[in-house]
C-alpha cells in the first residue's frame, strides 16, 4: 500500500494519501482493490535498481545481516517515540523554556516567561520587535499534561486574547477534535495549536538558529541513511 502510493507512515502513525482515498472510493471490490495495489507495487519495483533488495518481497531470506539492519522507517519511529517520551517526562517549566527557545529561534522576542506558580493562563509573552511596540502581541499557554485539551480549555485561553493578540496554545497531550475544529473556525481570534509533534518538527526546522544553551534543553543528533529508493 505504501509503494502503491496509498498509505504513508511517519513517526509510527499511518495516514491515507489522497490517491489512497480515491482508490478506496472507486474500487469497491476488495479483491480488485488488492490486485490494483499489487500492480502498482510491481510497477514501482520495476523502476528500482536491480541490486536493491525490497523489504517484504516474496522469497526474501532472513539472513543475520538483514536481521541486524534497521530500516529508516523503524529508526524514525523509534526515535520519535523516545523524543515524545522525553518531552512528556520533563517538568512543566523546562518544557516552557523549550517553547520560548523555539520562538526566539523563529525571530520573536520573549518579554516574559511565567515563574513557577499561578500564571493566570499565560505562560509566555512575545513580540515581533525587541520593545514590543509592534502588533501583534503573542500570548502563549503551555500545557504539559497527558490529556488532550478540550474545547472548554481552548475557550478559556481565547478569553485572554485581546483584539490585537495572537494566541499560541502548546499541549503535550494534543487537542480534542472539537478543540481543533473550534480553533480553525475562529475569524476574529488568531490562534495556533501545537502538539508535541508540531513542536518537534519546528525545533528541527529552526535547529540551526537555536543557540547552544537552548539546544541542550532538547538535544538532538541527526543520523544519515543511504536513500537509494526513488
Comma- or semicolon-separated keywords:
230 residues, alpha/beta, Trna Endonuclease, Chain: A, domain 1, 2 domains, 5-stranded mixed beta sheet, two-stranded antiparallel sheet, 9 helices, 7 strands, 40% helix
Beta-strand content estimate: 15-25%
Please give the number of β-strands.
Answer: 7
Q: Which range best describes the helical content: under 10%, 10-25%, 25-40%, 40-55%, 55-70% or over 70%? A: 40-55%
- Overall 3D geometry? globular
Q: Calculate the mean pLDDT score and round it.
A: 85
Oligomeric category: single chain
**Helix/strand order, N-terminal first:** EEHHHHHEEEHEHEHH
Strand arrangement within the widest β-sheet reads: 3-4-5-6-7
Structural class: alpha/beta
CATH fold-level topology of the largest domain: Trna Endonuclease, Chain: A, domain 1
Textual characterization of the structure:
A hairpin with a 2-residue loop joins strand 1 and strand 2. Mean pLDDT is 85; it is low at 57-61 and 63-69. A five-stranded mixed sheet has the order 3-4-5-6-7, sandwiched between helices. Strands 1-2 form a two-stranded antiparallel ribbon. The protein has two domains: 1-51, no CATH class; 92-215, Trna Endonuclease, Chain: A, domain 1, CATH 3.40.1350. It has 230 residues and is of the alpha/beta class. The chain is built from nine helices and seven strands; from the N terminus they run E-E-H-H-H-H-H-E-E-E-H-E-H-E-H-H. The protein has helices at residues 18-26, 30-46, 64-67, 72-89, 92-105, 151-158, 177-184, 196-205, 212-215; strands at 7-10, 13-16, 109-113, 124-127, 137-143, 165-171, 190-194.
Amino acid at each position: 500500500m505504501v509503494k502503491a502510493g496509498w498509505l504513508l507512515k511517519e513517526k509510527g502513525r499511518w495516514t491515507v494519501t489522497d490517491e489512497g482515498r480515491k482508490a478506496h472510493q472507486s474500487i469497491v471490490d476488495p479483491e480488485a482493490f488488492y490486485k490494483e495495489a499489487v500492480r502498482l507495487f510491481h510497477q514501482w519495483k520495476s523502476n528500482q535498481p536491480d541490486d536493491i533488495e525490497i523489504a517484504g518481497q516474496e522469497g526474501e531470506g532472513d539472513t543475520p545481516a538483514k536481521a541486524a539492519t534497521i530500516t529508516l522507517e523503524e529508526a524514525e519511529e523509534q526515535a520519535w517515540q523516545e523524543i515524545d517520551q522525553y518531552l512528556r517526562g520533563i517538568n512543566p517549566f523546562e518544557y516552557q523554556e523549550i517553547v520560548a527557545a523555539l520562538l526566539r529561534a523563529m525571530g520573536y522576542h520573549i518579554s516574559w516567561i511565567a515563574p513557577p506558580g499561578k500564571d493566570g493562563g499565560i505562560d509566555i509573552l512575545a513580540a515581533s520587535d525587541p520593545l514590543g511596540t509592534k502588533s501583534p502581541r503573542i500570548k502563549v499557554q503551555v500545557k504539559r499534561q497527558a490529556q488532550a485539551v478540550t474545547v472548554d480549555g481552548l475557550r478559556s485561553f481565547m478569553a485572554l486574547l485581546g483584539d490585537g493578540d495572537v494566541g499560541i496554545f502548546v499541549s503535550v497531550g494534543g487537542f480534542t477534535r472539537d478543540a481543533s475544529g473550534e480553533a480553525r473556525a475562529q475569524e476574529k481570534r488568531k490562534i495556533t495549536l501545537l502538539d508535541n509533534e508540531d513542536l518537534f518538527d519546528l525545533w528541527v526546522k529552526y535547529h540551526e538558529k537555536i543557540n547552544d544553551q537552548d539546544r541542550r534543553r532538547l538535544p538532538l543528533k541527526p543520523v544519515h541513511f543511504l536513500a537509494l529508493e526513488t
